[in-house]
Amino acid sequence: MARDQLSPDGLQRCLRYVDERRHQRLLLEGLAVQDPLTGIANRYGFLGVLKARLEEEAEGLVLGHLDLDNFRHVNDSLGYQHGDQLINQVAVRVKELLDPGDTLARLGSDEFALLLDTQEDPARAGRMATRIVDALAEPFRVDGESLLLGCSLGLARAEHDIEADPLMWHAHIAMRRAKTQSGCTFHIYDEWLNRSERNLADLETELRRALRRDELELHYQPRLCMQTGQVVGLEALVRWRHAERGLLGPNEFIPLAEDTGLIIPLGYWVIDRALRDLRWLLDRDVAPLHMAINLSFRQFQDSKLLPTLGRLIDERGIDPRWIEFELTETAVMRRTEQVIKTMKALRGLGVRFSLDDFGTGYSSFVHLSALPIALLKVDRSFVGGMASHPENRRLVRAMINLAHNLDLTVVAEGVETRDELALLRQFGCDQAQGYLISKPLPLAELARFLVFGARRGNLLADESAGG
Ligand code: C2E
Ligand code: MG
Ligand code: MG
Q1: Is 462 domain-assigned?
Q2: Pocket lining: 356 vs ligand 1, CB cutoff 6 Å
Q3: Is pTM beyond 0.90 here?
């Protein structure tokens, strides 16, 4: 009997052990739901709290989504350490304003969520929002410097039966609405919220469905060599065949896809379809062509880009040297170093790059010469006004010279008239793309265009004969 009994010392040790294990477990659980930088809840912890509170009593709860404006620039210019300090200060400022029944959490890099209890006092949400944005509008001190931040706060009231996800989405939409104003501002989501914003929410759901149901299509716009008059390349341009709204152009849904992250699956769909169609064309003996595919900045942040692309190229049996990716100037300039690194890795697969919409961003000569690109596409806004504006003529000529000095091939976008084509030839432009040659075409029509492509050579011949 005595053997089974613990001595007082043993009992103490045992209790201490149990206590330590409990403490460790709590610590681990805490880490899983806590943001290590600020000590407040993380996204996971916040969702737990939100779901529990909604189940208990949704009425009177207000969800806030706070996003700092241009925080990336702070990180880029001051470095991550100071960026972290700033995040911490934001958390402290907001937390000081909250009541014990409220919750503050950090959702991601510069995004916070708050849950306010306004059951007793419905007007409290508006007052709190004002106090929070006012507090964040005051200068911050980082690294001895005074710094002003912009922020956008979106609020959404919980109504009975609403679940966590739609409530988070409402707050997000309201935050985006606040973002359309500068400085520190807030916006409350309500039934009167402008229809276009609601359409945006609908559009996102529809776009997800469109991807699943294969409602997207690619049209191809040919690119001509100015010397031979031959089609030397195609640009893949995505469209959405919407059941009610007809054929939608990329400008109507690519920005939304970029905002919501849908651009990643959408982008892979585009790459896969373009390679498949190129295979189809090659199998029908059209001359080898470059296939240009537009890439968004977001796709460059996807760690799976390189392996997935490698796999797709293998699967479709395409020689990678015929694949070209178009990146816009603004995309490249956002995180030049990181983008160049990814570009170089992709180039290792054998693909090449072009700089799209050149002239609309801010690339300097230094930047340009550092980019691993093979082509430069002069934006159509310069090409368009060439015949009537001497200024545009001078700019296009300068861009062509600059590109040639850097050993880059120049493509003029948006060529619509014979006059423009004539000027471009005179300036030594290498390739042309635009409605004059052809609009973007569905695959079958494009195949027909390529077969009767000789006619395009005549177009150029007429031009040179005429002047
Ligand atoms: P972009 O890459 O600069 O593509 C050229 C745009 O100019 C296309 O518009 C094309 O239809 C239009 N265009 C071509 N020739 C002419 C012309 O002579 N006159 C005029 N006025 N326009 C001409 P689209 O198809 O509406 O595409 C708009 C933009 O959407 C593209 O600009 C590209 O940045 C983006 N985009 C298209 N497809 C994709 C895609 O698959 N992924 C991504 N990330 N972006 C895409
Ligand atoms: Mg393009
Ligand atoms: Mg372009």
Answers
A1: yes
A2: yes
A3: no
Instruction: Tell me which of 189, 212, 227 is where a domain ends.
Output: 189
207, 252, 256, 294, best to mutate for ligand 1 pocket (most atoms within 8 Å of CB): 294
Q: First and final CA of the chain: distance in angstroms?
A: 114
CA 403 to chain centre: 28
Whether 11 is in a domain gets the answer no
Task: Considering only CA atoms, give the Rg of the chain.
Answer: 29
Could you tell me if residue 384 is inside a domain? yes
Q: How many structural domains compose the chain? A: 2
| Nearest-angstrom CA–CA distance, 359 and 17 | 68
d(CA 107, CA 89): 16
- Among 189, 224, 239, the domain boundary falls at 189
For ligand 1, whether the C-beta of 237 sits within 6 Å is: yes
The whole-angstrom separation of Cα 124 and Cα 116 is 9
Determine, yes or no, domain membership for 23. no
Q: Distance (Å, rounded) from C-alpha 256 to C-alpha 254?
A: 5
For residue 412, what are the domain limits?
202-466
Q: Nearest CA to 262 among 206, 193, 315, 318?
A: 206
Ligand nearest to the CA of 223: 1
Quick check: 197 and 177 in contact, CB under 8 A? yes
User: Which residues lie closer than 8 Å to 69 by C-beta, 6 or more apart?
Assistant: 149, 150, 151, 152, 179, 182
Cβ neighbours of residue 345 closer than 8 Å, sequence gap 6 or more = 306
**Cα distance between residue 415 and residue 353, in whole Å:** 21
pLDDT digits (tens, 9 = 90+) for 296-328: 988 988 999 999 999 999 999 999 999 999 998
327 lines ligand 1 (CB under 6 A): no
Residue 374: CB partners within 8 Å, gap ≥ 6?
Answer: 324, 352, 353, 354, 408, 409
Strand (E) or helix (H) holding 52: helix 43-56
Same domain, 136 and 257: no
Q: What is the largest CA-CA distance in the chain?
A: 115
Nearest CA to ligand 1 atom 23: 414
- For the Cβ of 254 lying below 6 angstroms from any atom of ligand 1, the answer is yes
Each as own residue / partner, the long-range contacts of residues 70-75 (CB below 8 Å, 24 or more positions apart, any chain) are 70/150, 71/109, 71/110, 71/149, 72/110, 74/147, 74/149
Task: Say if ligand 1 is within 6 A of residue 365 CB.
Answer: no
* Average per-residue pLDDT for the chain: 87
State pLDDT tens for residues 47-58: 999 999 999 988
Residue 229, classed as helix, strand or coil, is coil
Residues 288 and 393 in one domain: yes
| Alpha helices for 138-226 (secondary structure H) | 164-179, 195-213
